[in-house]
Amino acid sequence: MNKPAAAGGTPRGGWSAWREWAGSHPILHAVLVGVTTGFLWLGVSLILGRNAGFAAVNGIFYGLAVASMTWYAQRRFRKTDARLDERGQTLMFLRYPYARPGSLSTIWQMGIADPGPGRIDFQPAVYEDLVPTGRSKALTGLGAVSAPRYADPDDNKHHVPPGFQVVSVESDGGVIEIAARPKTLQRIRKAVEAPSIGTDS
After folding, report:
1. Interval 43-68 mean pLDDT
2. Global pTM?
Protein backbone atom coordinates (compact mmCIF):
# COMPACT_ATOMS: atom_id res chain seq x y z
CA MET A 1 0.00 0.00 0.00
CA ASN A 2 1.21 3.50 -0.75
CA LYS A 3 2.07 5.41 2.39
CA PRO A 4 1.78 9.13 3.02
CA ALA A 5 4.98 11.08 3.23
CA ALA A 6 6.43 11.90 6.60
CA ALA A 7 5.23 15.09 8.20
CA GLY A 8 7.27 18.14 7.36
CA GLY A 9 7.17 21.65 5.99
CA THR A 10 4.76 22.97 3.43
CA PRO A 11 6.05 22.85 -0.15
CA ARG A 12 6.84 26.33 -1.43
CA GLY A 13 7.52 28.01 -4.72
CA GLY A 14 5.86 28.03 -8.12
CA TRP A 15 2.23 26.98 -8.17
CA SER A 16 2.25 26.27 -4.42
CA ALA A 17 3.18 29.88 -3.67
CA TRP A 18 0.51 31.14 -6.07
CA ARG A 19 -2.19 28.94 -4.52
CA GLU A 20 -1.17 30.07 -1.04
CA TRP A 21 -1.37 33.71 -2.13
CA ALA A 22 -4.75 33.15 -3.81
CA GLY A 23 -6.17 31.64 -0.65
CA SER A 24 -4.87 34.52 1.48
CA HIS A 25 -6.03 37.31 -0.87
CA PRO A 26 -9.44 36.27 -2.24
CA ILE A 27 -10.42 39.70 -3.57
CA LEU A 28 -7.15 40.29 -5.43
CA HIS A 29 -7.28 36.71 -6.69
CA ALA A 30 -10.77 37.25 -8.12
CA VAL A 31 -9.65 40.53 -9.74
CA LEU A 32 -6.59 38.91 -11.33
CA VAL A 33 -8.65 35.99 -12.62
CA GLY A 34 -11.17 38.43 -14.09
CA VAL A 35 -8.51 40.64 -15.71
CA THR A 36 -6.73 37.62 -17.18
CA THR A 37 -9.99 36.25 -18.55
CA GLY A 38 -10.87 39.64 -20.02
CA PHE A 39 -7.56 39.98 -21.85
CA LEU A 40 -7.74 36.40 -23.12
CA TRP A 41 -11.25 36.97 -24.45
CA LEU A 42 -10.13 40.25 -26.02
CA GLY A 43 -7.24 38.50 -27.76
CA VAL A 44 -9.42 35.66 -29.03
CA SER A 45 -12.01 38.12 -30.35
CA LEU A 46 -9.37 40.11 -32.22
CA ILE A 47 -7.85 36.94 -33.68
CA LEU A 48 -11.30 35.95 -34.93
CA GLY A 49 -11.55 39.27 -36.75
CA ARG A 50 -13.96 41.09 -34.44
CA ASN A 51 -13.67 44.87 -34.36
CA ALA A 52 -11.78 46.39 -31.45
CA GLY A 53 -14.85 47.92 -29.80
CA PHE A 54 -16.81 44.67 -29.84
CA ALA A 55 -13.78 42.74 -28.58
CA ALA A 56 -13.22 45.19 -25.72
CA VAL A 57 -16.85 45.04 -24.60
CA ASN A 58 -16.77 41.24 -24.68
CA GLY A 59 -13.51 41.16 -22.74
CA ILE A 60 -14.86 43.47 -20.04
CA PHE A 61 -18.14 41.55 -19.78
CA TYR A 62 -16.58 38.11 -19.45
CA GLY A 63 -13.82 39.38 -17.18
CA LEU A 64 -16.36 40.88 -14.77
CA ALA A 65 -18.50 37.75 -14.92
CA VAL A 66 -15.63 35.40 -14.09
CA ALA A 67 -14.29 37.69 -11.34
CA SER A 68 -17.75 37.86 -9.76
CA MET A 69 -18.22 34.09 -9.85
CA THR A 70 -14.76 33.52 -8.38
CA TRP A 71 -15.36 35.98 -5.55
CA TYR A 72 -18.84 34.62 -4.83
CA ALA A 73 -17.59 31.03 -4.60
CA GLN A 74 -14.80 32.02 -2.20
CA ARG A 75 -17.22 34.07 -0.10
CA ARG A 76 -19.60 31.13 0.26
CA PHE A 77 -16.80 28.91 1.54
CA ARG A 78 -15.72 31.52 4.09
CA LYS A 79 -19.28 31.94 5.37
CA THR A 80 -19.70 28.17 5.62
CA ASP A 81 -16.41 27.86 7.49
CA ALA A 82 -17.53 30.52 9.97
CA ARG A 83 -20.88 28.83 10.60
CA LEU A 84 -19.26 25.46 11.19
CA ASP A 85 -16.59 26.93 13.43
CA GLU A 86 -19.30 28.28 15.74
CA ARG A 87 -20.50 24.68 16.18
CA GLY A 88 -17.02 23.26 16.72
CA GLN A 89 -17.06 21.61 13.30
CA THR A 90 -15.03 22.10 10.12
CA LEU A 91 -15.52 22.13 6.36
CA MET A 92 -13.49 19.33 4.79
CA PHE A 93 -13.05 17.44 1.52
CA LEU A 94 -12.35 13.70 1.58
CA ARG A 95 -11.25 11.07 -0.91
CA TYR A 96 -9.57 7.65 -1.07
CA PRO A 97 -6.77 8.13 -3.63
CA TYR A 98 -5.88 4.43 -3.82
CA ALA A 99 -9.39 3.04 -4.24
CA ARG A 100 -9.97 0.87 -7.31
CA PRO A 101 -9.94 2.78 -10.62
CA GLY A 102 -13.34 4.21 -11.49
CA SER A 103 -14.55 4.20 -7.90
CA LEU A 104 -16.42 7.29 -6.74
CA SER A 105 -14.25 7.15 -3.62
CA THR A 106 -11.37 8.60 -5.65
CA ILE A 107 -13.37 11.80 -6.25
CA TRP A 108 -13.31 14.61 -3.71
CA GLN A 109 -16.40 14.65 -1.49
CA MET A 110 -17.28 17.71 0.54
CA GLY A 111 -18.72 17.52 4.02
CA ILE A 112 -18.69 18.43 7.70
CA ALA A 113 -15.97 17.02 9.93
CA ASP A 114 -16.09 16.37 13.67
CA PRO A 115 -12.47 15.51 14.57
CA GLY A 116 -11.54 13.71 17.76
CA PRO A 117 -8.68 11.61 19.14
CA GLY A 118 -7.70 9.09 16.45
CA ARG A 119 -10.85 9.61 14.39
CA ILE A 120 -12.94 11.97 12.28
CA ASP A 121 -16.72 11.74 11.92
CA PHE A 122 -17.43 12.92 8.39
CA GLN A 123 -20.90 13.87 7.13
CA PRO A 124 -21.17 14.53 3.37
CA ALA A 125 -23.12 17.74 2.86
CA VAL A 126 -24.05 20.47 0.42
CA TYR A 127 -21.94 23.43 1.44
CA GLU A 128 -24.43 26.22 0.74
CA ASP A 129 -27.01 25.11 3.31
CA LEU A 130 -25.11 22.22 4.94
CA VAL A 131 -27.85 19.69 4.16
CA PRO A 132 -26.56 16.10 4.61
CA THR A 133 -26.30 14.25 1.30
CA GLY A 134 -25.49 10.73 2.46
CA ARG A 135 -24.57 8.51 5.37
CA SER A 136 -21.94 9.77 7.79
CA LYS A 137 -18.58 8.00 7.89
CA ALA A 138 -16.40 7.25 10.90
CA LEU A 139 -12.77 7.59 9.84
CA THR A 140 -10.96 5.63 12.53
CA GLY A 141 -7.46 4.42 13.32
CA LEU A 142 -5.97 7.65 12.01
CA GLY A 143 -2.20 7.62 12.13
CA ALA A 144 0.68 9.29 10.31
CA VAL A 145 -0.18 12.56 8.58
CA SER A 146 1.82 13.67 5.55
CA ALA A 147 3.30 17.08 4.91
CA PRO A 148 0.63 19.37 3.43
CA ARG A 149 0.54 20.42 -0.20
CA TYR A 150 -1.61 23.06 -1.82
CA ALA A 151 -4.56 21.87 -3.89
CA ASP A 152 -3.53 21.64 -7.55
CA PRO A 153 -5.59 22.41 -10.68
CA ASP A 154 -6.94 18.85 -10.77
CA ASP A 155 -8.19 19.23 -7.19
CA ASN A 156 -9.70 22.63 -8.08
CA LYS A 157 -11.48 21.00 -11.02
CA HIS A 158 -13.28 18.81 -8.48
CA HIS A 159 -14.41 21.83 -6.44
CA VAL A 160 -11.56 22.02 -3.91
CA PRO A 161 -11.05 25.80 -3.60
CA PRO A 162 -7.72 27.56 -4.23
CA GLY A 163 -5.74 28.03 -1.03
CA PHE A 164 -6.90 24.73 0.47
CA GLN A 165 -4.21 22.29 1.55
CA VAL A 166 -4.20 18.51 1.15
CA VAL A 167 -2.72 15.89 3.48
CA SER A 168 -2.60 12.09 3.31
CA VAL A 169 -3.55 10.18 6.45
CA GLU A 170 -3.33 6.49 7.32
CA SER A 171 -6.64 5.03 8.52
CA ASP A 172 -8.31 1.70 9.20
CA GLY A 173 -9.89 1.96 5.75
CA GLY A 174 -6.61 2.67 3.96
CA VAL A 175 -4.87 5.89 3.05
CA ILE A 176 -7.24 8.86 2.82
CA GLU A 177 -6.68 12.40 1.60
CA ILE A 178 -8.14 15.39 3.40
CA ALA A 179 -8.42 18.90 1.95
CA ALA A 180 -9.23 21.95 4.05
CA ARG A 181 -8.03 25.43 4.85
CA PRO A 182 -4.55 25.48 6.43
CA LYS A 183 -5.89 26.57 9.84
CA THR A 184 -8.60 23.91 9.65
CA LEU A 185 -6.02 21.21 8.92
CA GLN A 186 -4.05 22.34 11.95
CA ARG A 187 -7.15 22.00 14.14
CA ILE A 188 -7.93 18.57 12.68
CA ARG A 189 -4.37 17.37 13.20
CA LYS A 190 -4.31 18.65 16.78
CA ALA A 191 -7.62 16.96 17.59
CA VAL A 192 -6.74 13.66 15.89
CA GLU A 193 -3.32 13.43 17.53
CA ALA A 194 -4.63 14.29 21.00
CA PRO A 195 -4.59 11.36 23.45
CA SER A 196 -7.93 9.73 24.15
CA ILE A 197 -9.47 10.17 27.58
CA GLY A 198 -8.13 7.48 29.84
CA THR A 199 -5.05 6.90 27.68
CA ASP A 200 -1.70 7.12 29.40
CA SER A 201 0.35 10.08 28.28
Report:
1. 80
2. 0.64
